[in-house]
Automatic annotation (TrEMBL):
<comment type="similarity">
    <text>Belongs to the ABC transporter superfamily. Ycf16 family.</text>
</comment>
<protein>
    <submittedName>
        <fullName>Fe-S cluster assembly ATPase SufC</fullName>
    </submittedName>
</protein>
<keyword id="KW-0067">ATP-binding</keyword>
<dbReference type="InterPro" id="IPR010230">
    <property type="entry name" value="FeS-cluster_ATPase_SufC"/>
</dbReference>
<keyword id="KW-0547">Nucleotide-binding</keyword>
<dbReference type="InterPro" id="IPR003593">
    <property type="entry name" value="AAA+_ATPase"/>
</dbReference>
<dbReference type="InterPro" id="IPR027417">
    <property type="entry name" value="P-loop_NTPase"/>
</dbReference>
<dbReference type="Pfam" id="PF00005">
    <property type="entry name" value="ABC_tran"/>
</dbReference>
<dbReference type="InterPro" id="IPR003439">
    <property type="entry name" value="ABC_transporter-like_ATP-bd"/>
</dbReference>
<feature type="domain" description="ABC transporter">
    <location>
        <begin position="2"/>
        <end position="246"/>
    </location>
</feature>
Amino acid sequence: MLTISNLHARVAGKDILKGLSLDVKPGEVHAIMGPNGAGKSTLGNILSGREGYEVGEGKVTFEGRDLLALEPEERAAAGVFLAFQYPVEIPGVNNTYFLRSALNAQRKARGESELDSMQFLKLVREKLAVLHLKDELLHRGVNEGFSGGEKKRNEIFQLAVLEPKLAILDETDSGLDIDALKAVADGVNALRSPDRAFIVITHYQRLLDYIKPDVVHVLADGRIVESGGPELALELEAHGYAWIKDRLAPGA
Ligand code: ADP
Ligand code: MG
Ligand code: MG
């Protein structure tokens, strides 16, 4: 589904990704862990099409298409969930209205019919039930005054409604309390399916207590330096990232 080969990228004149390769198949959940500053968010941002990154060598293919050549909206229509496209806060814009517009823009780009408000409401009700969410989020402004946990629940709700093939979630290193982590995990678990893949970027192992990934990768110094099963996350929790750094040191 997604193949990243030898990806290099610079930010503000500094080399951040230095030959990153990753292969994600439908149905898989990949966790990407790694020390602070390793380039995890950079990777997520580049896949999302965020500006400000200078991609050098390397290639990213999504279902056979050159992902990096696509505009962010085209990536979304192709089935890549781009958390940053669904902005943090848009006061005064109703959450349901916003999400229906986003979904219909994607459907239109794929040549599918747009959903009218009745059809959309039906879809929303189904998704709320699957995720065990209350409908109070629907009537508020997009993320307006949402708590950290509510923002996370809303992100998962957006994901459920947009039904992407590949969802990339960057669970930023700080500020997520246990409720927010559980909301993310419950959502990911409820939305797992044989034809949907997830890349969950996280600094901490604790998220993976709730999401059982198929593959865990360690990103350090701009590359995937280690991949393994869920036990790798536990190993990192026990030993920290120091052993990875030792491994990266010349002559180690
Ligand atoms: P991680 O998410 O793994 O903690 P990031 O991808 O956020 O790491 O950052 C990787 C490196 O790139 C860090 O050294 C960070 O300071 C640098 N970096 C990221 N974004 C920018 C930017 N916009 N300008 C300058 N440096 C940046
Ligand atoms: Mg960081
Ligand atoms: Mg980060």
